[in-house]
Design brief:
The protein has 6 helices and 10 strands. It has about 220 residues and is of the alpha+beta class. The chain folds into 2 domains: about 60 residues, wza like fold (2-Layer Sandwich), CATH 3.30.1950.10; about 100 residues, Roll (Outer membrane lipoprotein wza fold like). The strands form 3 sheets. The chain has a 5-stranded mixed β-sheet with strand order 7-6-10-8-9, with helices on one face. A 3-stranded antiparallel β-sheet has the order 2-1-5, covered by helices on one side. It has a two-stranded antiparallel ribbon with strand order 3-4. Strand 8 and strand 9 form a beta hairpin.
């Protein structure tokens, strides 16, 4: 028993720090900016004219990113914020209406989903009909797997203009009820909950040491806590 214990520490002298794993979590980045809602193909919008209700429209943005309106024809909608589209519509309708005031209301967004994976109970795609924080998304995924989840090292992966950004989130204050700034998600974000270091160490020892030792023949075993 003593010999095996010594061998373990000789093989893995930094056992308590992760067996020298080269994988490092992303450095904590600056606070994430508030998410920007951009319109996409498949989104449904309502356009309301308070002084010309006969022109009210409900449109689903076409695959080419455009909508078609009676007075002004086709316009690009995808890739714009609702407020940007509203300003453009007011401008182009000013030549046709005495009071071109209007409102753009987003009814549904086709691509408003995020993926939650890792040490959660029900990993998968999560719908986000409105604002959604990282912690709320994890709860929608069945919550943390409390036996393995590294609650204070959650990773947020965000795709922005063809680039990938990774941020480390510390969610322990939120779970403990301490005041904190919530992290709001954007469509197609990935929230990954890693496993704790000690669990990874246990798996490493199980695979690389324990399975190689003749424990059964010697008549004893060991347990990692």
């Amino acid at each position: 028993m003593i010999i095996i214990a010594i061998s373990l520490f000789m093989i893995c002298p930094i056992l308590l720090t992760g067996c020298g794993s080269s994988r490092k979590p992303p450095e904590t980045a600056a606070p994430l900016p508030a998410p920007i809602v951009l319109l996409s193909p498949g989104d449904t919008i309502e356009i309301k004219f308070p002084y010309a209700e006969q022109f009210n429209e409900t449109q689903t943005i076409r695959p080419d990113g455009k909508i078609s309106l009676p007075l002004v024809g086709e316009l690009q909608a995808a890739g714009k914020t609702p407020s940007d589209l509203q300003e453009q519509l007011i401008q182009v309708h000013s030549a046709h209406l005495q009071h071109p005031e209007l409102a753009v209301i987003v009814r549904t967004q086709y691509e408003r989903k995020v993926y939650v994976g890792g040490a959660v109970n029900q990993p998968g795609l999560i719908d986000m009909p409105g604002k959604l924080t990282a912690l709320e998304a994890i709860m929608e995924a069945g919550g943390f797997d409390l036996t393995t989840a590294a609650v204070d090292s959650v990773i947020l992966i965000r795709y922005n203009n063809g680039n990938t950004q990774s941020h480390q989130l510390k969610l322990e204050p939120a779970i403990e009820g301490i005041e904190h700034a919530p992290v709001y998600l954007e469509p197609r974000d990935v929230v990954f909950v890693p496993r704790t270091t000690i669990v990874e160490v246990g798996q490493w020892v199980q695979q690389h040491i324990y399975d190689l030792l003749p424990i059964g023949r010697l008549g004893f075993g060991y347990t990692l806590n």
